[in-house]
Design brief:
By secondary structure, the chain is α+β, with helices and mostly antiparallel strands. The protein contains 7 helices and 4 strands. The chain folds into 2 domains: 17-74; 86-162, Glutaredoxin, CATH 3.40.30.10. The longest helix is centred in the N-terminal third of the chain and has 12 residues, at 35-46. The structure holds FE2/S2 (inorganic) cluster (FES).
């Protein structure tokens, strides 16, 4: 059967956060002029934009990679994937905030000595925060190197970070 021209490309992974991006693209009718809104949603759910995300969004909306990168790098609002060897994304969405996200950010600061948005001086870990990781039932949630950890306590987070 012929594929519809509106059929999206395959998501880069089976990470369920892609569903939020897909829903946004569908609502916008996969229109190329929805690029900024979709990048915004993608960054909201992942905390930053990496190459796979930019390629997927571009392909799904029919926008050439150059334009996607152009937009993603032009607006200071967008954060491209940080350069640290590892990434730690702390969710600060409502559910996570209520369940102790600020304690987790404080623990990150104590353990790594850096704040959200920064990379440790040795280039090992980049710390980011996201508004909602789509795992609210696991609040407070943290994603370390793409793996979601739920109901995380500061001591558990310390252990996870020290193991990187
Ligand atoms: S608010 Fe943190 S996962 Fe939704």
């Amino acid at each position: 059967m012929a594929q519809s021209t509106l059929a999206p490309a395959s998501a880069p992974s089976d990470d369920k956060r892609w569903r939020q991006v897909d829903v946004r693209m569908r609502r916008l009718g996969y229109r190329p002029d929805g690029l900024i809104e979709v990048l915004h949603t993608t960054q909201e759910v992942f905390g930053y934009l990496d190459d796979d995300a930019l390629a997927y969004v571009g392909e799904s909306l029919g926008v050439p990679p150059s334009k996607v990168y152009g937009v993603a790098t032009f607006y200071s609002h967008f954060t491209l994937k940080p350069q640290g060897e590892h990434t730690c994304v702390v969710c600060t969405g409502t559910a996570c905030y209520i369940n102790g996200a600020s304690g987790l950010l404080a623990e990150v600061g104590r353990t790594l000595g850096v704040k959200e948005g920064a990379t440790t001086p040795d280039g090992k870990v980049s710390v980011l925060k996201a508004r909602c990781l789509g795992a609210c039932s696991l609040a407070p949630a943290v994603v370390i190197d793409g793996e979601v950890h739920g109901k995380v306590t500061p001591p558990q987070l310390k252990t996870l970070l020290e193991a990187l």
